[in-house]
Amino acid sequence: MKKIIISTVKSLTTKLLQLLRESVSSQKKRKKKNRLKRTKKKKKLTPRLTLKNKKETEFYKKYLDRLAKLNEELPYLEQKAPHKGKTVKTQAMIKKTRKKVQKQGAYSRIGINKPY
Hints:
Blueprint: H1 2-38, H2 51-73, H3 76-80, H4 88-102
């Protein structure tokens, strides 16, 4: 009689454990599904450039080229005081680039305004 009880207890415990494992795994699966539903799928970025992006990159390149030229021609300290002892041409170049930068208003420190 003892052996039968022990065997039934063992079988019951194994069955219980199995059921518990299944319930836990099903709960995990449910949680995972809910989590996936909640989070939106991230869109993959395509390497194609749209027309607007192309225009933007072209503008940035032009602007950066102009700034590079300015930095080559004039040392840093001279850029701070644009009208002291410069030729008219360099003064005009500095003025132009500064105006373009300041057109942006609140974001003038960023240094690039979008012309479109």
